From TrEMBL:
The keyword Translocase does not apply. Belongs to the LysR transcriptional regulatory family. Keywords: DNA-binding, Transcription, Transcription regulation. This is LysR family transcriptional regulator. It comes from Blautia caccae. Gene3D superfamilies: 3.40.190.290, Winged helix-like DNA-binding domain superfamily/Winged helix DNA-binding domain. Residues 1-58 form the HTH lysR-type domain.
C-alpha cells in the first residue's frame, strides 16, 4: 500500500466526488477510480458507496479513513523533520492543548521560541485530554498541555505553578448569581453540566460530596466552548475551571467561584525516551530552563 494511494483516497473522501478529486490530484478520473478499486481489493473491504454525483463512506471506510489520516500525518511529519536537518533550525512542533489558563503561559514561551527560531512553525490542536494522550502515544503530537489529574507514568512533564480554580458557569439572571458566596451544597438542587472525562468527573463529584445519581445532569461535555452556549440557553450550570473561559465571552453568562475552594494545575508532557526532531527538542530544552507560571 503506497502513501500516494492513501492520499488519493483521502482527497476523494474529502471532496465527496471523484471528478473534483481527480482535478485536484492532477490525474484522470478513470485512473483515480481504478486506484480506489484496487485499494478496496487489496484490503478485501468496501470503503466507498459510489452514487451518481457523490461518494459515501461505509463503516469500514470510516475506520480506514481515520487510520489513513494518521499514517499520512506521520509521513508528512517525518519528511518535515529530515527536510530541514542540515539547514537552520526549522520544522513543525505539534502541540495539543486542553482548555486551561496554562495555555497563556505556554503562549508566552511559544512567542519567545519563535523570536529565536523564526523558521519554526507550531501546529496547535485544541483537544480533550484523552485525544491528546492518544496522539502523543502515536507520535502525532510532540507535546501536550493537560489538566491534572493525569497519569504521567509514560511521560516526562513539567507542572505549571499557576493554579486553576473550579467553579460554576451560569447565566447572570440565575438565582445562584445573586448570592454573595456560593457553596458546593448550593449547586445540588440545580441542573449541572459536568465534564465527561472520567478523572475530572470523579474529582468534581468528590468535591461536590454527592453521588452522581443524586444530581440532575442534562449534559456531559468534553470542551467548554460549546457548553457556554447551552448555559446561555438556560439548560443548566456548567461546572468548569476558570481558565477554560478564555475561549468564550458573553455578556449573559458569568463564572463564579464555589466554596470550599478546589484548585488544580496544568502539566506539559511528552513521551519518555522519545527521539524528537531538532525544533521540538530545542523547545523542550528551553522549557526546562525557565520557571513555569511566572
Amino acid at each position: 500500500m503506497e502513501l500516494r494511494v492513501l492520499r488519493y483516497f483521502l482527497t476523494a473522501v474529502n471532496e465527496g466526488n471523484i471528478t473534483r478529486a481527480a482535478d485536484i490530484l492532477h490525474v484522470t478520473q478513470p485512473t483515480l477510480s481504478r486506484q480506489l478499486i484496487e485499494l478496496e481489493n487489496e484490503l478485501g473491504a468496501t470503503l466507498l458507496i459510489r452514487g451518481k454525483r457523490s461518494l459515501t463512506l461505509t463503516d469500514d471506510g470510516m475506520l480506514f479513513k481515520q487510520q489513513a489520516e494518521e499514517i499520512v500525518e506521520l509521513a508528512d511529519k517525518a519528511e518535515q523533520t529530515f527536510t530541514g536537518k542540515n539547514e537552520a533550525i526549522s520544522g513543525v512542533i505539534s502541540l495539543g492543548a486542553s482548555e486551561a489558563l496554562g495555555g497563556r503561559v505556554l503562549a508566552r514561551y511559544m512567542k519567545q521560541f519563535l523570536k529565536k527560531y523564526p523558521d519554526v512553525r507550531f501546529d496547535l490542536y485544541n483537544e480533550m485530554a484523552d485525544n491528546i494522550k492518544d496522539k502523543l502515544e502515536k507520535g502525532l503530537l510532540d507535546l501536550g498541555l493537560l489538566l491534572e489529574p493525569v497519569d504521567t507514568k509514560k511521560y516526562e512533564f513539567l507542572r505549571l505553578s499557576q493554579k486553576e480554580s473550579w467553579g460554576i458557569l451560569l447565566r447572570k439572571d440565575h438565582p445562584l448569581a445573586e448570592k454573595d458566596k456560593i457553596y458546593v451544597q448550593d449547586l445540588r438542587e440545580y441542573p449541572l453540566i459536568l465534564p465527561k472525562r472520567e478523572n475530572a468527573r470523579n474529582e468534581v463529584l468528590n468535591w461536590l460530596q454527592c453521588e452522581e445519581s443524586h444530581l440532575n445532569i442534562p449534559v456531559n461535555y468534553n470542551l467548554l466552548s460549546n457548553v457556554a452556549l447551552l448555559v446561555e440557553a438556560g439548560i443548566g450550570c456548567a461546572v468548569c475551571l476558570d481558565g477554560a473561559l478564555s475561549v468564550h465571552c458573553s455578556p449573559d453568562i458569568c463564572f463564579c467561584p464555589v466554596y470550599p475552594e478546589h484548585t488544580t494545575r496544568s502539566v506539559l508532557l511528552w513521551k519518555k525516551n522519545h527521539l524528537f526532531q531538532p525544533a521540538a527538542s530545542l523547545f523542550i530544552q528551553m522549557l526546562h530552563t525557565h520557571k513555569w507560571g511566572e
